[in-house]
Amino acid sequence: MTLVTMMTAHYQDILNDNFWLPFTPNKDFRNDPKLFVRAEGDYYYDPDGRAILDGVSGLFASALGHGRKELAEAVHRQMLTLDFTASFYRGHPGAFAAAKALSALLPPGLDRIFFVGSGSEAVDTALKIALAYHRAKGRGGRNIFVSRERAYHGVNFGGVSLSGLPNNRRNFDGVGPRVVHMRHTWLAENRYSRGQPGHGDFLADDLLRLITLHGAENIAACVVEPIAGSTGVLVPPVGYLERLRQICDRHDILLIMDEVICGFGRTGRAFASQSFNIRPDIITLAKAITNGALPMGAVAVSRDIHDSIINAGGEREIEFFHGYTWSAHPVACAAALATLAIYQEENVFAAAGALSGHFLQRLFALQGQPLVTDIRGYGLLGGIDLAPAANAGQRGYEVQKKLFDAGLHLKSTGDALIIAPILVTGLERIDRLFEILTRVLSTIK
Ligand code: PLP
């Protein structure tokens, strides 16, 4: 019996063929299953009780670490008080409280909150809000969106149309809203830039070229991740986002920032748009909004956009025909409220900012390791490009598996590794993360 067969046999009481894993090579998983059965603090535990350091906050979600009792208690209480009501025609206190608590973190005036169930729903909702806004303003012809190569905006049809990742578009191209793409912001001359690269603001002028080609009167919004996360952490060059903002202002194009990964302290401030000092018209959020404890997303909208849509409807008319059964789910709202309270009480965002210097120092010390071809990082978010093997993506996938076996959970996208430690982690766990990573990288041929 091979080791793999023995391992699979060992997990037979857990595995079955019914569960279809998302974004996973399912056949390989069956042969070599990687399972978590428990989590606490910075660690996951496999069925054998082996501790695996969480180097990516679950999936950019568990900013406060795993198993927080305050969240479990808030969720438990809410389940016994009001387990569920939809928010169609009805409200509940948690929804109003969560919206208020969230607004307190957001830039002034960006404080009208539409709750959804995930990041993908937040993105598609933001696109619909942009269209509804322009219609309310009598600019109904504006229905083109501008996105970017290498962008990730979730997997619903709006997000897939925005996507700049070929594998995510393949099979689904040509369906969904009309989207045109700017170039991505990776430049060879910026390799190993720590923080924002100094060169590349000119790439924002792609938006001007698209305006010339398609006409500003046809463009609804420009959608960008402040830091393009899922593609391997592309930090915006100095001046790039500022230039996008100026161009959008000049042409009445909305600027939507997708902060599903960057939001809630990842960059050392509540939101990356604050770290980069840019005021978007709409921000999309999810993941760490509940510390990953329950599914939830949100769209934060400027008062002007909100009021334009609401005031376009009559007194007894639904102004915006959109929403989900789980929009403002009472239990998710309770989890969000408890999470946001901890962010504030423990000063989590500033603490993350303070840890960033050490994190980036350890991250950039990997320069010169075999296989490493570029490193990027900002706040507590890092990306490492690895030299590809025979097939694109194979190296990243194999390294990610080896890291798991060595006791570290990281995300790979293509041949890039992504690191996003728990925000309340300590120096010694940052060191441990990089010790494992260095050891594994040094053994790969
Ligand atoms: N937008 C961005 C920037 C993301 O990184 C993600 C997920 O990683 C999404 C949207 C989609 O979020 P979800 O997986 O919750 O639908």
UniProtKB/TrEMBL annotation:
Molecular function via GO: pyridoxal phosphate binding; transaminase activity
Cofactor(s) annotated in UniProt: pyridoxal 5'-phosphate
Protein name: Beta-alanine--pyruvate transaminase
Keywords per UniProt: Aminotransferase, Pyridoxal phosphate, Pyruvate, Transferase
Source organism of the structure: Sodalis ligni
PROSITE patterns the record matches: AA_TRANSFER_CLASS_3
Similarity comment: family membership: Belongs to the class-III pyridoxal-phosphate-dependent aminotransferase family.
